[in-house]
Specification:
about 160 residues; mainly alpha; Arc Repressor Mutant, subunit A; 2 domains; elongated
């Protein structure tokens, strides 16, 4: 019955819970008809549903009276983006930790510190061609490891 009176399943469950709570709370005063509390329970459920709807309308009217500065972005989107970024950061960190020291040095110097291959070669004391080949090999390996974060074709062309 409460599902018929309410808009959502959750609201109906809330009304039913309220009715059964009232039945328990007033168990000594409940009027039993032909050995059943069902009539009392149905009436109590109807009252609880009406009270819930009335309360919701009052709350909505209150919200409508509050002045708005315009659309406020939903903070849930920002939280979701932050959680996605955290997962990406953890996955990238893990992928970098899996690299051997030589490859990690090249990645740190060329990709993170943004040094040109020629300067990274001087820092590492190896030929520039070795830096370039290691960087190419590591980028390829990281693309495979982190493929789920690769941009879609539309994103890459934007």
């Amino acid at each position: 019955m409460s599902l018929v009176l309410m808009r959502t399943t959750w609201d109906a469950e809330e009304v039913a819970a309220t009715a059964f709570f009232e039945l328990w709370r007033k168990r000594d005063k409940v009027r039993v008809v032909d050995g059943s509390v069902l009539p009392w329970l149905l009436a109590t459920t109807a009252f609880a549903a009406k009270n819930s709807l009335r309360s919701r309308r009052r709350y909505q009217r209150l919200l409508n009276r509050i002045p708005h500065d315009g659309d406020v972005p939903d903070h849930a989107d920002e939280v979701a983006r932050a959680m996605d970024s955290l997962k990406i950061s953890n996955d990238v960190r893990g992928a970098l930790l899996d690299l051997n020291q030589r490859d990690a040095s090249v990645v740190i110097l060329c990709m993170i510190q943004e040094l040109p291959a020629s300067e990274a070669a001087v820092v590492l004391g190896i030929p520039e061609g070795t830096v370039k080949s290691r960087l190419s090999r590591v980028k390829s390996r990281l693309r495979g490891t982190l493929h789920e974060y690769a941009p879609t074709t539309e994103e890459a062309n934007a």
